[in-house]
Amino acid sequence: MTITVVEMRSNELGSMDIDQLRGWATFMDRAMIVSLVATVLAVTALGVTTWLSFKYNNAVRTQEHAAFDRFKDIESRSGQLEKDAVAARERSATLEQQMAAARERAVTAEQEATAARERAAASEQAIREANERAARSARAARAARDTAVASAKAAAREKAATSEKPPAAETAAPPPLDTATIQQRIADLAKLVRDATARAEGASPPAQGQAEEKGASEAAPASGDKQSPVVASLQKYAGAKAAVFVISQVPEAPAAGAAISADLGAAGWSSQTWTWSGVAGIYGVVVLLKEGSDAATTEAAAALVEALRTAGFNATKGDWPADWRRYRGALDGPQTPAPSDAPIRIVVGIKPR
After folding, report:
1. pTM value surpassing 0.70
2. Strands 241-247 vs 285-289: parallel, antiparallel or unpaired
3. Which tens digits make up the pLDDT trace of 65-89?
4. Largest alpha-carbon pair distance within the chain?
5. CB atoms within 10 A of CB 306
6. Whose CA is closest to 157, among 182, 179, 183, 176?
7. H/E segment holding residue 203
8. How many CB atoms lie within 10 A of CB 68?
9. Is residue 23 exposed (0-12), middle (13-18) or buried (19+ Cβ within 10 Å)?
């Protein structure tokens, strides 16, 4: 493109010719085109820059959102871990408390077991002492009975000798002894024997009273006028129900069980007898009371224990170790009533007297 510069003759507008005007118009057109091109380029550059800025901002926001989400996730996980840690500490404290309570229960159970063993040892010692006292009382009663029999025989001989003498000698002989005198003499001899036994043993007043009752029970058959002390003490509980369990492995148990059943029947009690096999280790006569029995049954069981002790039996009161309807071994006896119907059980074991 060739630009022809027209010589300017004058600076005044009115003095410009047509060629000069065409030159300026051409120049202005070209300047406009250049300006338009520059504007288009600037707008294009601005659009590209804006587009790149938007894209960069979107990428930055995406990264920020991703980082914020990761932070929120980490924060939520941290909170959950903290809650889990607090729950674990609480469970640990609870387990420690339970372990402490278990240790306390174990110590308490051990103390109770020790106390139970001590009570069992004391009970065995008391049973042995009671057996010894019963044996001594029985020996004393037998000695008193033998003495009374000897006195009765001597009185009979004196009476026979007096009847054989001549009438003159009858006036000088001592008067014959009647039945009341013989009974009084037997009672005096039994009292002397009991007093001597009590002084030798250093027994307490209750033990002396039991010895007197035993002596009276031994002297009752000789006089024939008094009933058994067991029957006398249990008559006011007439109608009570009891089951007698006789250990089959003990030779002396059947006789003792029969005697106890006879006394209970004479006292008006309702009792049945079963032979118990498959068990061992039961000493003496054990009176068992069903859990939850009424006051009258409980009183009758306590009176039965005292009556059996008075009669010379080695009687103690105990607890059934399991359910009242369950038992070891086998029972041989009546089918009706059942062995578990009676609220009182009398187990006759080794050495009942």
Report:
1. no
2. unpaired
3. 999 899 888 988 888 999 999 999 9
4. 221
5. 18
6. 176
7. none
8. 10
9. middle
